[in-house]
Amino acid sequence: MSDQSSSPSLTAGSRGSCSPAITRPTWLLSTITDFDERMKAIGTTNSGEDGPNHTFAQLAESYYGKRPQLLSLLQDLYNSYVALCNRYINALAKRDGANCAELESLDLGEHGEIEYSEVHSSLSYQKPYLSSEVGTTELGVKNVENDRSMEESYKKIQLLENLLEILESERMIREGQNADLEIQVAALVEQNQMLSNEKELMKCRVSEQAKSAWKTREEGCVEELTSKIRELEKRVLELEKENKEYCRKIMKREMELENEDEDEGRSEISFGCFRFGKLKRGSRRRADVKKMNIFKDGH
After folding, report:
1. Locate the NAB domain: which residues (predicted)?
2. What is the C-alpha to C-alpha distance for residues 187 and 160, in angstroms, rounded to an integer?
3. 3-state DSSP of the chain
């Protein structure tokens, strides 16, 4: 930048008669110093982050942190270069105007034709130089623009590559997580199948226990009914035995009464005054027969 800024002045000085040595201006020195400090700061930061212990995430974070500084530095360089080109073009235009003023102030005398031919030859010599300088300036501006677009494209490509690496790493992580989830799902499905089988087994056991309890209950009821039936049968046998005994006693009593009646009938002929005793015994016998009939009906 300093060489390009000084080249027009040096050229102009060489074409003049005797001009003093041109030094760099203060604003140019301050600008160069500022750029040097910023470049050193960025270079120091980069040298501290190039170690093998830094991870990709740290490098990406550092890149995104320095990106505004780089863009700002590049923008300042571009603006300074464009300003330098404009000043260079303005200097060339001023020099061209000064040459034209010198031509107008020339005195046409005896050697007017010779002086005019010399000035014309001088201008004809300077026109290709001016056109080449302007073309070089335009080419420099275009090169700067192309370099800037190329730099931006390169940064975009790097950014896309970094994003692609991040996405690839995330994809690998997601694949690992999906594999773990598939294993967990398979384990849960197997556990669910085991629980279903255990549930069916428990249902079968509960059904068997219910059947066993019902069977036990039925057996208990049957045994209880059987014991009650046996008790009733025993009671019936006892009642039948008592009934038979009672009937036997009644029959015995009837036989005794009949025998007594026969004896009384035989003695009634000779003892007519005892008729009343016979009637009394006959009424007693009929009462006993009536009781026996009532007992038979009840059983």
Report:
1. 6-95
2. 40
3. CHHHHHHHHHHHHHHCCCCCCCCCCHHHHHHHHHHHHHHHHHHHHHHHCCCCCCCHHHHHHHHHHHHHHHHHHHHHHHHHHHHHHHHHHHHHHHHHHHHHHHHHCCCCCCCHHHHHHHHHHHHHHHHHHHHHHHHHHHHHHHHHHHHHHHHHHHHHHHHHHHHHHHHHHHHHHHHHHHHHHHHHHHHHHHHHHHHHHHHHHHHHHHHHHHHHHHHHHHHHHHHHHHHHHHHHHHHHHHHHHHHHHHHHHHHHHHHHHHHHHHHHHHHHCCCHHHHHHHHHHHHHHHHHHHHHHHHHHHC
Percentage of the chain exceeding pLDDT 70:
58
Cα–Cα dist 126/98, whole Å? 13
For residues 205-223, one letter each, b for 16 or more C-beta atoms within 10 angstroms of the residue's C-beta and e for the rest, the string is eeeeeeeeeeeeeeeeeee
How far is it, in rounded angstroms, from Cα 86 to Cα 160? 36
Which of 99, 148, 152, 151 is closest to 121 using CA atoms? 99
CB of 74 within 8 A of CB of 35? no
Residue 238 to residue 262: CA distance in whole angstroms: 36
Take residue 101 and report the two structure tokens written for it: 């003023």
How many other C-beta atoms can be found within 10 angstroms of the C-beta atom of residue 88? 20
Q: Which two tokens stand for residue 65?
A: 């942190």
For residues 235 and 246, give the distance between their C-alpha atoms in angstroms, rounded to a whole number: 16
For 143, phi and psi rounded to 5 degrees?
-65, -40
Domain ranges of the chain: 2-190, 238-298
Give exposure, 243-258, as e/b (b: 16+ Cβ within 10 Å).
Answer: eeeeeeebeeeeeebe
Q: What is the value of pTM for the model shown? A: 0.28
Can you tell me the distance from the alpha carbon of 215 to that of 211, in angstroms, rounded to the nearest whole number?
A: 6
Q: Which amino acid is at 237?
A: L
Give the residue among 98, 90, 99 at the shortest CA–CA distance from 125.
Answer: 99
